[in-house]
Specification:
Elements: H1 17-24, E1 40-49, E2 54-61, E3 67-74, E4 78-83, E5 89-97, E6 102-106, E7 109-111, H2 118-130, E8 132-134, E9 139-144, E10 151-152, E11 155-160, E12 163-165, E13 177-182, H3 186-191, H4 198-209
Parallel strand pairs: 3-10, 4-11
Antiparallel strand pairs: 1-2, 2-3, 4-7, 5-6, 5-13, 8-12, 9-11
């Protein structure tokens, strides 16, 4: 049976979630009173497991009463940091991604070690990949799921507005070149398809939306 035929269908008589958010603010949960469209999970069984990826089959029932197995994929969590300097530039790395066979600009970041605070992850990854130490408190922008329908892999996005060059990068496998990119150039890079990583896109668009006096 197709696994996603029912996903996205809803009851048109219900009040849209955006009405609730618009009236009460984003901290109000649109599902606090009614969770009737939640998919029921009766259990799951792993079909492939290793450190990098776990694939499972979940026994689920959709709101219309149909019950079937649905793939569920677990990937490690990741954390990304946008380092911003006093000249309204963001530090980025031009790198190759072999899976999709593409080059694009990305922010420093990496996988969160088991039990590790994601802030520790971005401090470590920034130093390894850029040679910069993060010298100010990190701003947590958002934690999100990049492929929420089938995959769980929490991604943590941060902004660092205080950095100091303390060393040369020790990571040799993740960047063809590195540069401080002016924020004014970011929309052009996005339009040209030169920023394709979801965490990077979220971070730089947050920076663009929150700019002041530019």
């Amino acid at each position: 049976m197709p696994q996603n035929d029912h996903q996205g269908q809803g009851n048109s008589d219900r009040t849209p979630a955006y009405d609730v958010i618009g009236a009460a603010g984003p901290k109000a949960s649109p599902v606090a009173e009614d969770q009737s469209t939640a998919w029921k999970v009766y259990g799951e069984r792993p079909i492939y497991e290793n450190f990098w990826v776990t694939v499972a089959m979940a026994d689920i029932e959709t709101p219309d009463g149909q019950r079937f197995e649905h793939h569920k994929v677990y990937l490690p969590s990741a954390a990304v940091v946008a380092m911003v300097d006093d000249e309204d530039r963001v530090y980025m790395m031009w790198r190759h991604r072999f899976v999709g066979q593409l080059w694009n600009w990305e922010l420093p970041g990496g996988l969160v070690d088991p039990g590790e605070d994601p802030e520790v992850t971005v401090v470590r990854e920034a130093l390894e990949e850029t040679g910069y130490a993060l010298t100010s408190a990190l701003e947590h922008v958002v934690t999100y799921e990049p492929m929420i329908g089938t995959v769980t892999s929490p991604h943590y996005i941060y902004v660092a507005r205080g950095v100091e060059k303390v060393a040369e990068p020790t990571e040799k496998n993740e960047a063809q070149r590195r540069a401080w990119v002016p924020m004014d150039e970011i929309p052009v890079l996005i339009s040209a398809g030169q920023i394709a990583n979801s965490g990077t896109l979220i971070a730089v668009q947050h920076l663009l939306m929150t700019r002041t006096g530019k």
